[in-house]
Amino acid sequence: MKMHALRAALFAGAFTMAGGTVVVPAMAQEYEPQKVKKSVSTADLRALVASLGHEELRVVEEEYFVVARDSDGLSYTLYGTACDVEPISGCQGIMAQVRYDLPDTVTHARLAKANLENAALNVWADFENQTLGVTRYVVIDHGVTMANLRENIAVLLSLAPKAANTANGED
Could you tell me if residue 31 is inside a domain? Predict the structure, then answer.
């Protein structure tokens, strides 16, 4: 099934129009797989994207926000959560998200099925804004390796299309 256009880039554009700043510096931080992170910066998110060989579409440095696209054309957003909570600088969580235009065939029952079949993900719909979303959240508290963070993103990207198909009734 071919899903409708992804909304990650649109979300970033709307964010920018609402006053966010888009900055794409020339070089992201180097990816160190064994490095243990207790919080992440935008540079860390960019390093994860680069380690996967993906293209950056938008970066909002001060908002811990990166939109990227993989080699198959799947766009996704990484953004930090629980950020700059004293005494810890940076973000203690990462939300990785893929957004699609909401097909008419998505129902609550199909969303439940998609969630049951994909325990590693959260599959959701915003019917008002016509968005189908697939997310994976990672808690970083007390330390996670960059390799583990990278794998969490890879899991999302590998499972999101099938989960979206299930929610759409095309499984």
Answer: no
